[in-house]
Design a protein that fits this description.
The complex is a heterodimer of chains A (about 170) and B (about 210).
Chain A (H helix, E strand, L loop, with lengths): L2 H14 L7 H25 L5 H9 L3 H12 L18 H22 L7 H21 L3 H16 L5
Helix pairs in contact in A: 1-2, 1-6, 2-3, 2-5, 2-6, 2-7, 4-5, 4-7, 5-6
Chain B lengths: L2 H11 L15 H8 L24 H18 L10 H18 L7 H14 L7 E10 L5 E9 L1 H4 L2 H22 L4 E8 L11
Parallel strand pairs in B: 2-3
Antiparallel strand pairs in B: 1-2
The chains are: A mainly alpha (about 170), B alpha+beta (about 210).
């Protein structure tokens, strides 16, 4: 199984441990794993745009940045296509499945920050189970949309958004 | 005058050092009164400084009127304090229900800032007619997210009945988020809405020492 699916499964496993009195450590790790599951699904797909050789793909993967992925995701949720690629005659509208993926990525990144750094937030079991469901929905939506140009442009935007969002010369 | 100024003054006077939203304990009348009876420092005109009824267009008319009347009554009690002398026990006793009403209307346990109050009340008003009974509570927090972008966090509490079965809980959570997300984006245009779903029966769940 892939790392992303393993992480999703790990998240589910941790969230379901001790259903009556769940430990914060398990809920936090489950929430964080749900984010990383989606992160690795998308970052793995992004590096696969450029390389099939696993070592090279992994090195490309290391160049991806959570913040840049977040920024590109916000743009796609808001129906924004990189300026240089945009067809000015038609208003761009992000496909629903891709919007769901990008939105979930942003949502889960917030969750991951709470899970890893914010001790004022204590997680509840239902809360974490719902977050994992969101990740699962994003996986399903990605499967439906991943072979489209929109999805490939989204992935490439993790690295190229800044360059592509400038007005073309 | 501003909503923020008034909200912060009341929050400071109502000194309840517990956790904030969403972990805040429920502020029902006995809980509010217990805080107010610890001291009478809150009984000064500064506590309601900055109040302007016009800052609360998002409150239903009845709530706005109650808030205005409570602030006016509060000022009447606070004005009896002269030269920094402590208020008489009778004055404090008479002022407690008035200040309790102000705190109850601002609901610090459900809205963690003036902006959260403004956004939360607007969202609740927008969904009032369609709100499913399974959505038993909402709590709001506003501020910058981990990227420094303006955000609003919405904690939705689902009923005990829905929470008995995970599948049912997840179905409701998904449906409610799909329904609420565009409403929240329309009302708080400049903020990213983050949704968290909890069961009302887990509200006082175990919290381990960090």
């Amino acid at each position: 199984m892939s790392l992303s699916l393993d992480l999703l499964e790990q998240a589910e496993h941790l969230a379901k441990r001790d259903p009556r009195r769940p430990k914060q450590v398990n809920l936090r790790r489950a929430a964080s794993a749900a984010y990383y599951a989606l992160f690795h699904l998308l970052s793995g797909s992004a590096s696969a745009l450029f390389a099939t050789e696993p070592g090279l793909a992994a090195r490309i993967n290391r160049t991806l940045n959570h913040g840049e992925m977040w920024k590109a995701s916000v743009m796609f949720v808001n129906d924004k296509f990189p300026k240089a690629l945009d067809d000015k005659r038609v208003r761009y509208s992000t496909p629903a499945d891709l919007r769901l993926v990008a939105k979930t990525f942003i949502d889960l990144q917030d969750v991951r920050h709470k899970a890893d750094y914010d001790l004022t937030h204590s997680f509840r079991r239902h809360e974490v189970v719902a977050l994992i469901q969101s990740a699962r929905r994003a996986f399903d939506a990605w499967e439906r949309v991943r072979k489209t140009d929109d999805a490939r442009i989204y992935l490439a935007s993790f690295l190229l958004w800044k360059r592509w969002d400038e007005d073309p010369r | 005058m501003s909503l923020s100024e008034f909200w912060i003054n009341v929050r400071r006077a109502f000194h309840d050092p517990g956790p904030g939203v969403p972990e805040a304990r429920r502020l029902d009348d006995p809980a509010i009164e217990a805080v107010l009876r610890r001291s009478s420092d809150w009984l000064t005109v500064d506590t309601v400084d900055g109040f302007d009824e016009a800052d609360f267009p998002f409150l239903p008319e009845a709530g706005r009127r109650r808030l205005k009347e409570s602030v006016e009554a509060f000022l009447g009690f606070a004005a009896t304090r002269k030269f920094r002398r402590p208020p008489t026990p009778e004055t404090v006793e008479a002022a407690v229900p008035v200040f309790r009403e102000i705190v109850r209307l601002l609901e610090f346990d459900r809205y963690d800032s003036p902006e959260a109050l403004r956004i939360g009340k607007r969202i609740e008003e927008a969904i009032r007619d369609d709100r499913p009974t399974e959505l038993v509570d909402l709590r709001f927090s506003a501020g910058p997210d981990h990227m420094g972008a303006p955000a609003v966090w919405i904690w939705a509490y689902l009923s005990a009945e829905v929470s008995e079965d995970d599948r049912k809980f997840l179905e409701f959570a998904r449906d409610i988020e799909d329904w609420l997300d565009p409403i929240a984006r329309r009302i708080a245009r400049d903020r990213w809405p983050y949704f968290y779903f909890r069961s009302i029966v887990e509200e006082d769940g175990p919290v381990e020492v960090p």
